[in-house]
Design brief:
CATH class: Alpha Beta
CATH topology: Alpha-Beta Plaits
Strand content: 15-25%
Number of domains: 1
Helix content: 40-55%
Strand order of the largest sheet: 2-3-1-4
């Protein structure tokens, strides 16, 4: 495993642990899902450190509301604590009813009239998004 792979794995585990811990106090929310619910870990890496705030402003400015409307539920958002990743990386987890629903939601998002009209200036430049789908194990406090 490469250093990058270990780092991403550590960030993913940290994010999952944090999400599980923060949601464990909200038992009704954590238990209100179907048996096929999946979590999507997304790590967005921007090529330019000035663009991270642009990305987060888009999320704050309404992109997350579109996702929610399409069935993509936010679990949490984080930036790494160490530089240089703290300047170029956003880590987040979304919950979906199933893997199939996730793919359907992303396809709907790409064609959504509200998203198509959404202001996309300034341009983000190149962005790499790594995505990993996860299912909770039997002893996980969040399912």
């Amino acid at each position: 495993m490469t250093v990058l792979g270990r780092t991403l794995s550590a960030v993913g585990l940290l994010a999952i642990g944090y999400a599980a811990g923060s949601l464990s106090d909200r038992t009704p929310v954590a238990n209100a899902q179907g048996p096929n619910r999946v979590f999507e870990l997304r790590i967005a890496t921007l090529s330019n450190k000035e663009k991270l705030e642009v990305l987060m402003s888009r999320f704050r400015g309404g992109e997350l509301k579109i996702w929610d409307r399409l069935g993509m539920k936010s679990v949490g958002y984080w930036v790494p604590t160490d530089s240089p990743k703290s300047q170029t990386t956003l880590v987040y987890i979304l919950a979906h009813e199933s893997r199939q629903k996730a793919d359907e939601s992303w396809a709907k998002f790409a064609k959504d009239p509200e998203w198509l009209a959404f202001p996309k200036e300034p341009d983000l430049g190149p962005v790499t998004v790594d995505r990993t789908f996860m299912s909770p194990v039997d002893f996980s406090p969040i399912k």
